[in-house]
């Protein structure tokens, strides 16, 4: 397997990427292709003893940083001869030289670069961003969490198909429970988009369990939750913000009371467990689905360990042929709806 | 002042309501009109020494419970001769016999009853539910949080006007900072609704500060945040769910570690402060705005103390003439947009 790792993604890049590349190559026996400014990467890589494992450097002189956004970023992402590490790395997927691309960089930048350079799978109209939310006793995959603010029912149906395949193939969940995010559990609740998507999901052949609200989502009643990119982004950002606010209050209180008396050791397990909720993707990577290539985005704060986890998650999707399964399922779904129209 | 209190609202009704009525009448010198089944309420009220204060009972033989929903609830709310405590109480506003109505009952039921029986203020197309979110060092009023899942830009403009008046008059916030909930801070970000609402808010004469995401909302950068009822409801329910999930983990961990060693006293301030976040309206009441009458909804878990707080919040709105100010502001806004069209 050949996995491309963006050397210039994480907040403290390229150190975590260099370490992770060597470690992942050693651990999984894959070829790791590290993309970034070769001149500065090469000497650092040598000090890590990379000569014994399969880490290859590919040159990319520019980067998309966390500050890039808007039209300027879109141009960087789209330009034919773009020299950003994301563009060069993703082009390796397009040319068939690699099987998947992993970055801990700018989410919007990775989405735009992948969208413009790989294009969507035939029949797929919108490529969603999927995030893994930690919920009671497990995880829930939510998509779209920001790439497509305005969606149609047909888009949400495709998100459900892609999310379900991802949950099944890459996460080994048998018959993933698929739900749609709504403002009430009962069928019939929802805005126009939700009400019109409901019947499509009901007749999709997926394991559709109906509407869920925040309560059901975070209590773990669904494996995959679909929503438009606007609502999904509000969900992601506001729950992160509330979690952070609670943690801040807690940390402040613990500092003034308990920790000073007891040392941090007793309170630490609580904080660590809760901190994982702040960064849904800290211990893995979020896939971009619906594109002609596998692209995974890890958290900006990723260290080497988190990047190795991200590569591990990515490998699982390559091995399970997530891409091929999505292609087939989308074709089947389109065929089904065409037959329905003819009838 | 004459305030109607629904005797059959809270989860443990009517005890908290009976206590609160007597206490509020004593504390504020108002007439509290308690609406519910008079036969069972009367003897209980007498044991509370209500004879010395101004608490009046009005008979209502039926109730809208927390389980009522859908069409059956709408019919209960709408029926001309409805005998629910909400319908009878709200009819007292309509006939001019009272100044405001407070309930800790079913939010949807209260909204529907008030909407059907009072009607909207002339020119107002949608009546939003407003919730008060606890944020860093203060509060933020968010509307609509569920009454109107599908909204147009003109509706959100009216929500902004009403929310701003409420924040100013009832909460004494000078020039409330008004924002719109979006999936990005920059102007131009958002779904179609947000992008089309933005220019209306910009030229509204309100203190419009632009888009906010969850991060800015919970760090207290806005006093009033407008959104459609679908997104607002997702925001409310999902942040409540995350807060509850964190609290559950915390409580579990504290139980097994710290509390058993230290007694609960040291950890309690953290928990109490955070618990307030779970129930934004526990210490007040959420107004229904845009209707021909002042209606406030307290939390279902309200005890007598919380209900007295809800009555206090309601009094403030009556005293500040929130209703009259909204009527005037809506007329002015409509006149402004008519003039614009003529020009």
Q: Could you explain the architecture of this structure?
A:
The structure is a homodimer of 343-residue chains. Chain A is α/β, with parallel strands linked by helices. Chain A has 2 domains: 2-124 and 290-327, Isopropylmalate Dehydrogenase; 130-279, Isopropylmalate Dehydrogenase, CATH 3.40.718.10. Helix content of chain A is 49%, strand content 15%. Chain A has 13 helices and 11 strands. In chain A, the strands form 2 sheets. A 6-stranded mixed beta sheet of chain A has the order 3-2-1-4-11-10, with helices on both faces. In chain A, strands 5-6-9-7-8 form a 5-stranded mixed beta sheet, with helices on both faces. In chain A, helix 1 (15-28) links the parallel strand 1 (2-6) and strand 2. Chain A is globular. In chain A, 56% of the residues are buried.
């Amino acid at each position: 397997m050949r996995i491309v790792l963006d050397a210039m993604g994480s907040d403290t890049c390229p150190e975590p990427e260099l370490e992770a590349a060597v470690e992942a190559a050693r651990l999984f026996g894959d070829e790791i292709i590290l993309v970034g400014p070769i001149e500065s990467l090469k000497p650092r890589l040598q000090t890590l003893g990379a000569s014994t494992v399969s880490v290859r450097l590919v040159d990319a002189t520019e980067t998309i940083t966390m500050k890039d956004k808007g039209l300027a970023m879109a141009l960087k992402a789209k330009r034919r001869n773009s020299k950003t590490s994301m563009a060069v790395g993703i082009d390796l997927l397009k040319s068939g030289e690699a099987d998947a691309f992993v970055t801990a960089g700018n989410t919007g930048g990775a989405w735009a670069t992948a969208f413009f350079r790989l294009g969507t799978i035939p029949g797929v109209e919108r490529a969603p961003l999927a995030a893994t939310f930690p919920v009671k006793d497990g995880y829930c995959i939510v998509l779209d969490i920001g790439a497509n603010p305005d969606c149609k029912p047909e888009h949400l149906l495709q998100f459900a198909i892609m999310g379900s395949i991802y949950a099944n193939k890459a996460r080994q969940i048998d018959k993933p429970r698929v739900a749609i995010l709504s403002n009430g559990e009962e069928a019939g609740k929802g805005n126009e988009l939700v009400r019109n998507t409901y019947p499509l999901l009901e007749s999709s052949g997926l394991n559709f369990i109906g509407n869920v609200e925040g309560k059901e989502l975070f209590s773990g009643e669904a494996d995959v939750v679909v929503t438009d990119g606007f609502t999904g982004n509000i969900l992601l950002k506001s729950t992160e913000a509330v979690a952070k606010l609670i943690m801040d209050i807690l940390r402040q209180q613990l500092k003034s009371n308990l920790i000073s008396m007891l040392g941090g050791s007793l309170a630490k397990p609580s904080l660590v467990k809760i901190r994982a909720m702040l960064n849904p993707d800290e211990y893995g990577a979020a896939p971009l689905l619906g594109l002609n290539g596998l692209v995974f985005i890890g958290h900006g704060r990723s260290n080497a360990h988190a990047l190795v986890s991200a590569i591990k998650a990515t490998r699982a999707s390559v091995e399970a042929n997530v891409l091929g399964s999505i292609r087939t399922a989308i074709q089947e779904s389109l065929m089904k709806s065409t037959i329905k129209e003819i009838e």
